[in-house]
Design a protein that fits this description.
By secondary structure, this protein is an all-alpha fold. The protein has helices at residues 11-18, 20-44, 49-75, 87-93, 102-129, 134-161, 164-182.
């Protein structure tokens, strides 16, 4: 359904479980960055009324997810750590060359956001399906659905603003790049690590 070209190995789950506080901290800040991205799209494309409405909803939902992750950490006696650079997102953002064309720049942002959401969805499913901790399993199953919805929304908007054939070629190129990148990952307790 997600179209990803590389599946996360279940061995990543052991890495994530053994570094649970780091994983949850990384996840909390990933939700915050997703909210910031939605707000940035609103600021830069404020004339796109439908897009602004949906990005507003996403920004609010992502901050709610941040709060949920933080509350889970507090319940477990954890303290939110420091944010670290998300090298996964940075590498994806660097895939497309900078362009002065506003529409093309928006397409690139939407495709990168769609892929981040798709990979998060896939990782949450792998985590939930291989977790003995029922609270965490249920928590990540619920979030997985939201990530899938965001993925389809971002990809749908990209296809709305540019010819579908062009967008799908860009999407497939980005998927292939991400798959090669993911083959080197799975060794750190981070959502995309």
């Amino acid at each position: 359904m997600l179209g990803l070209k590389f599946d996360t190995e279940t061995s990543w789950v052991d890495v994530a479980k053994n570094g649970l506080q780091q994983l949850l901290t990384d996840h909390a800040f990933a939700e915050q960055k997703a909210a910031s991205n939605a707000v940035s799209i609103i600021i830069n494309y404020s004339e796109e009324t439908e897009l602004v409405k949906d990005m507003s909803d996403i920004a609010i939902e992502e901050m709610e997810h941040f709060r949920m992750v933080h509350n889970l950490m507090v319940e477990r006696g954890m303290v939110l750590g420091q944010a670290t650079k998300n090298d996964y997102a940075l590498k994806l953002q660097g895939f497309f060359k900078k362009t002065p064309n506003r529409t093309e720049a928006l397409i690139h942002r939407l495709l990168v956001a769609a892929l981040i959401e798709a990979r998060s969805c896939e990782r949450f499913k792998v985590f939930a399906d291989n977790m003995e901790d029922q609270q965490l399993s249920d928590f990540y199953k619920d979030l997985m659905i939201s990530e899938a919805n965001h993925y389809t929304l971002f990809l749908g908007y990209a296809r709305k603003y540019m010819d579908r054939e062009i967008v799908d070629q860009k999407w497939n190129d980005l998927l292939a790049f991400e798959a090669s990148m993911m083959k080197e990952r799975g060794t750190t307790a981070k959502v995309h690590g």
